[in-house]
Amino acid sequence: MSSDQDHAHMARAIELALQPSFTSPNPRVGAVLVRDGEVLSQGIHRGSGTPHAETEALRGVDARAATMYVNLEPCAHHGRTPPCAPAVVDAGVARVVAAMEDPDARARGRGFAYLRDRGVEVTTGVLEDDARAVNREWAHQRLTGRPWVTLKLALSLDGRLAAPDGSARWITGPGARREVHARRRASDAVMVGAGTVLADDPSLRVNDVAPTRQPATLVVDAAGRVPMGARLFSNHDVVVATTESAPPAVREGWAELGADVLVLAGSEGGVDLAALLDALGGGQGARRDWVELLCEGGAALATSLLSLGLVDRLSLHHGPVLLGAGGPAVGPVGVVSMPEALRWSCEEVRRIGDDVIATYRPPG
Length: 364
Description:
By secondary structure, this protein is of the alpha/beta class. The protein has helices at 4-17, 53-58, 85-90, 110-117, 128-134, 136-144, 174-186, 194-200, 248-256, 273-280, 299-307; strands at residues 30-35, 38-44, 67-70, 95-98, 121-124, 148-155, 189-193, 216-220, 238-242, 260-263, 266-267, 270-271, 292-295, 313-318, 345-352, 355-361.
C-alpha cells in the first residue's frame, strides 16, 4: 500500500525523469533514494550509454535499509550498460516503489521478480498515469515496433497551410516557432515531404532554442524530386525514403551526399508509409531505432499519414492570419459525411502571443 510520502517522492522521481530533453532510444527515468523520511540521493538517466537513474542514485551512498522510488521498473537484462536491479539488491535497498511496469514484453515483470526473489519489498502503481505520460512515446515504440508520429501543422484562421502562391513564412509568430524547435530537439527526426523541400528549402535544424542536439532529417520523396542542392543535405544525419520510381541517378546522388537512401515499396499515395515506420522503429531488421518522429508537412504527406491512421499526436498551430481560398490544405481522408468524421480528443490548448497551439489524440 502506498502513502502520501510515497506519492511525494514518486512525484520528484518523475520531475527528475523529465529533466533531459532527449534520452532516445531509452526511456526517461528518475530515481530518489530515501531512508527514514530523509532523501539520501537522486539519479537521472540522461540517454543511451549513460548510467541508469537507479545506479546514479546509489553512487557513493549507504543505501542499506533504504527505499528507492523510480518511475519505471528497474531492468534485469544487459544492454549497453549493466542491469540496475542487481545493483539495487547488492546495495541493500529494502524497498522499491515503482510507478509502472516495463511495457516491453522482453523485460516486463523481470525486474520486479528479480527484486522480490531476493527479498526486496516491491510496491507498484504509484502515480502510474503520470509515469505513463512521461514515457508514452517510448512505450508506443516498444509495443508497436514503430516510432510515435507527431504531426505538426501551422494553419491560418481559415485552415490553410500556405498562401495561394505556396508561401508559408510565417503563419505563426516567433514564440510558436520556438515551441517547434524545442519539439525538434526532443525528437529523433524531423520528417517532411518533397513538396515542402521544393517550396521552402528548409534546414529542419534546431535554431530558435539552445541546440543541445540536432535531430535527424527524414525526407519522403517517392519520385526523386528533391534536388541535390537542398539545404537539408548539409545536416549530419539524413534519411531519404523513396521508391523504385526515383531515377537511379538521383538515388545515387543522394547517397553521394551522405544520405541514407531507403528504397521501399510504392503505394497509391507514394512511399508505403506503414513500411517506412516499420523500418525506423527498432524492430528486427529495422534501419533505425527511433522513438519519435516530428512531421512538419506538407499537405500531401500530412493527408497520407492522417488517412492511414498513422498519426499519434496532432499539434495544430493556429496563426492570426486569413488567407482565403487557393492555398494548400489537408486533402481527403476518407470522410464523406459528418457521421464518418474522425473525432479526436483535445489534450491541451495554449496561447503564445497571438497564436494558439492545440494538441489532439486520435480516436480510440
